[in-house]
Write a structure and sequence with these properties.
The protein is of the alpha/beta class. It has 18 helices and 20 strands. The chain has a single domain (about 5-445), classed as Alkaline Phosphatase, subunit A, CATH 3.40.720.10. The protein has helices spanning about 30-35, 50-60, 65, 90-100, 155-160, 165-180, 205-210, 220-235, 260-290, 315-320, 325, 355-365, 375-380, 410-415, 440, 495-515, 520-525, 530-535; strands spanning about 5-10, 40, 45, 100-110, 130-135, 145-150, 150-155, 190-195, 295-300, 340, 350-355, 385, 400, 405, 425, 425-430, 450-455, 460-465, 465-470, 475-480. Strands 7-6-5-4-8-1-9-12-2-13 form a ten-stranded mixed β-sheet, with helices on both faces. Strands 17-18-19-20 form a four-stranded antiparallel β-sheet, covered by helices on one side. The chain has a two-stranded parallel sheet with strand order 3-14. The chain is globular.
Length: about 525
């Protein structure tokens, strides 16, 4: 009889801290909320501010710089990172596969610089027996680029189906694998990496209709309601006194084109809701096949809400030229692809390519400030829900101790009673950086360890209640996370000794894990006649 737990790792893409219901959001997410109600939530869990680095850290238990992916998946050598998983790290799939697990990835990979030819950074070469998904990052939900099964391009599977929608395809593939796996005696490890709700804002009209009118009152009212629910749930307790609008954005009453603005958030909500429906289908299969009780399930997001405006820079035509995947799209309604965030482009259909903008991202990150790519709370704070009925968890509890992505792999290995290897593929690998939080999940003493971040020059270190953080190229700021989680009152001037001590610790960490100074990366790009936007990806 199988004794080792199954492991299910579910990741959302570009979803804010407070979007789901059990973290204060108004979007209907009953299945994720169900996991939370009979599992454990974290109030201070952190990602690494960007999709590829977060995924690299999550799967390896290392800081992203150690894996070869410090920014995204562009090969920036010799002045930056190679942009692919290197051979000095090992994935949780490789470890569990060697321990007898069946392994599956459904969804987004985004950990290889070469996405056209199979290589050692592809999922099939990093421990996954089964792979269906996309090798690149963001893509159309109706015609996803780099759609791959195993190592074979299957974009035609999407273009050949009139009702294809990527979120549902990820779900269906996951369910098929789980049903097949239930017939064997192996435990499974499944990494379900949804692209929802990353831009483009695309959803079926009937799914958008479920959210019609939900955002007509605007971002100010809704942000206050989210904050109230967060307080009432005990998620943030008294750690946040104020919930301010991003000063760069107008009050809702002063916003133009309100109907169009509301529509943007309706589509985003539809994307989150459809992902939740998919998670519900996955849970239903696990229940039907008797696998749910002994499945250790995680749900989290890869970074904070995304404030990016499309096209990212330049004109829509220039944006299309820089993204060959857009030029291949042939919307089924026969129209030309419309790229951009302007009222003339009403998002949702597959012939549109838009994002929801900074004001709605500010709502998604309630009550934190800044966004994806920053190491302030809005960039790195994520919901984390852990569910394992047979695992002796303190169900219904909120873990308040701070943890980050490096801690997920050691938690999985402790639960599975599988050791972290000293070498892989015939050579030594870096020791795991994280600390297991399994004891915390079971109501034990909180683990005390220092957390670190760096992304495109933005940096942070957290030790206990103190967080030192900077936005490149500005100086360090210091915040007390026990009383000021929203980072409103900078204490750096009042606490210079703490600033100095934490800054020295951060410098030593950055040197040890191979952080490439952002100034060096920028210098390489400028020498090639390119700007900071190109360097940041």
């Amino acid at each position: 009889m199988q004794s080792k737990p199954n492991v299910l790792l579910i990741v959302a893409d570009d979803m804010g801290f407070s979007d789901i219901g059990c973290y204060g959001g108004e979007i209907a997410t009953p299945h994720i909320d169900r996991l939370a109600a009979s599992g454990v939530r974290f109030s201070h869990f952190y990602n690494t501010a960007r999709c590829s680095p977060s995924r690299a850290s999550l799967l390896t238990g290392l800081h992203p710089h150690q894996t070869g992916i410090g920014i995204l998946t562009k090969d920036d050598r010799p002045h930056g990172y190679p942009g692919s998983l290197n051979d000095r790290c090992v994935t949780v799939a490789e470890i569990l596969s060697a321990a007898g697990y069946a392994t599956s990835l459904v969804g987004k990979w985004h950990l290889a610089s070469n996405i056209r030819q199979a290589n050692e950074a592809w999922p099939t070469r990093r421990g996954f027996d089964h792979f269906y998904g996309t090798l690149a990052g963001s893509c159309s939900y109706f015609q996803p680029a780099t759609l791959t099964r195993g190592e074979r391009n299957v974009e035609s599977e999407a273009t050949g189906q009139a009702d294809y929608y990527y979120t549902d395809a990820i779900t269906n593939e996951a369910c098929a694998f789980l049903r097949e796996q239930s017939q064997g005696k192996q435990p499974f490890f499944m990494y379900a990496a949804f692209t929802a709700p990353h831009w483009p804002l695309q959803a079926r009209e009937e799914d958008i209709a479920k959210h019609r009118g939900l955002y007509d009152e605007g971002w100010d009212v809704l942000r206050e309601r989210r904050m109230q629910r967060l307080r009432e749930s005990g998620m943030l307790a008294d750690a946040v006194q104020e919930c301010e609008r991003d000063p760069a954005e107008p009050a809702w009453e002063d916003a133009q084109h309100k109907a169009w603005e509301a529509r943007r958030m309706e589509v985003y909500a539809a994307q989150v809701h459809q992902m939740d429906q998919g998670i519900g289908n996955i849970l239903a299969v696990l229940e039907e096949t008797g696998q749910l009780d002994n499945t250790l399930a995680f749900f989290l997001s890869d970074n904070g809400a995304c404030a990016e405006v499309l096209p990212l820079d330049g004109s829509a035509e220039a944006f299309k030229q820089r993204r060959p995947d857009l030029n291949r799209l042939r919307p089924r309604n026969g129209r030309e692809l419309q790229v951009g965030n302007q009222p003339a482009i009403v998002p949702g259909p597959e012939d549109t390519y838009a994002s929801y903008g900074r004001a709605w991202a500010n709502l998604s990150n309630t009550p934190f400030r800044l966004y994806k790519r920053w190491t302030h709370e809005g960039g790195i704070s994520t919901p984390l829900i852990v569910h394992w009925p047979a695992g002796g968890l303190a169900n219904g509890a909120i873990v308040r101790a701070p943890f980050q992505l490096t801690d997920v792999l050691p938690t999985i290995l402790q639960a599975a009673q599988v050791p972290y290897p000293a070498n892989a593929r015939g050579q030594d690998i870096a020791p795991c950086e994280g600390a297991s939080f399994l004891t915390d999940l079971r109501g034990g003493q909180a683990t005390d360890h220092t957390l670190y971040w760096e992304h495109t020059g933005n940096a942070a270190i957290r030790r206990g209640r103190w967080k030192l953080v900077r936005e490149y190229p500005k100086p360090w700021e210091l915040y007390n996370m026990d009383t000021d989680r929203a980072e409103m009152t900078d204490l750096a001037a009042q606490q210079p000794d703490i600033v100095h001590k934490l800054a020295r610790q951060w410098d030593a960490w950055a040197d040890r894990v191979g952080v490439v100074p952002w100034d060096d990366v920028l210098a390489g790009y400028r020498a090639a006649g390119q700007d900071e936007a190109e360097a940041a990806g």
